[in-house]
Specification:
The structure is a single chain. By secondary structure, the protein is an alpha+beta fold. It is globular and about 60 Å long. The chain has a five-stranded antiparallel sheet. Helix 1 runs parallel beside helix 4. Helix content is about 30%, strand content about 15%. The model has no long low-confidence stretch (mean pLDDT about 95).
């Protein structure tokens, strides 16, 4: 899925302007948006990959015009309706119109805090041996999928070198669309700046990405 979220290598957006001493939340509604999104996700109706996919699948013009947590809330509205937590009519009215169905998991403040502190493991037993080893030259495949992917556009078609084999993990491209976890090997791949951006790239700089095995081919 190519969308407004993937800005690597794209021109025309001006220089980056980091906010000095940026706070975690700029306003109270951002704090609440984060809390509500995390709590809703903890109910167990959708995966982290699905929630990320829905955020990124917004029309680029809308996505780029929104603030970070505005993107989160827009996605959450779509998720709760799609999974039957509320109806579109309830969302529009701001009040329940029918008896809600209990979610798969009960959510309490204590469970949320415990879950965040504990984290979630996404490593899984591999179904086959890894195709690449450390030091292997690889090329990121040129793909333009209609669905979710974590392969940035700027790396597609570029040659790099495997610097680490991380193990097998849940494959977001499948899990985001309820097609199962489909674990895949994950590699850290290093690219030279000049390979990514041509002669104008810094000769002494490199960029590393974590790339799933289906994203790569032997170079």
């Amino acid at each position: 899925m190519n969308g407004g979220h993937d800005l690597g290598g794209m021109m025309g957006f001006g220089a980056l302007a980091p906010e000095r001493d940026e706070p975690v939340f700029h306003t109270d509604w951002e704090r609440r948006a984060c809390a509500v999104t995390v709590a809703a996700g903890a109910c167990g109706l959708w995966s982290l990959d699905e929630s990320r996919s829905v955020r990124e699948n917004q029309p680029p013009g809308q996505y780029l015009a929104k603030t970070y947590y505005d993107v989160w809330i827009t996605a959450l509205e779509k998720l709760v309706v799609a999974h039957g937590m509320v109806s579109a009519e309830e969302l529009a009215s701001g009040r329940p119109l029918a008896m809600p169905q209990p979610p798969p998991r009960q959510v309490t403040p204590a469970r949320i805090a415990e879950g965040i502190a504990k984290g979630t493991r996404y490593d899984r037993p591999p179904a086959a041996a890894a195709a690449f080893a450390v030091g292997a030259p690889v090329r990121a495949r040129i793909i333009n999928p209609a669905g979710h992917t974590r392969l940035p556009r700027y790396a597609r078609g570029r040659q790099g070198e495997v610097t680490a084999v991380r193990g097998a993990f849940v494959f977001p491209d499948a899990n985001a669309h309820a097609r199962g976890e489909n674990p895949q090997w994950l590699y850290t791949v290093r690219f030279s700046a000049r390979e990514l951006w041509g002669p104008e790239g810094d000769a002494h700089s490199t960029v590393t990405i974590d790339a799933f095995e289906p994203y790569l081919e032997p170079a």
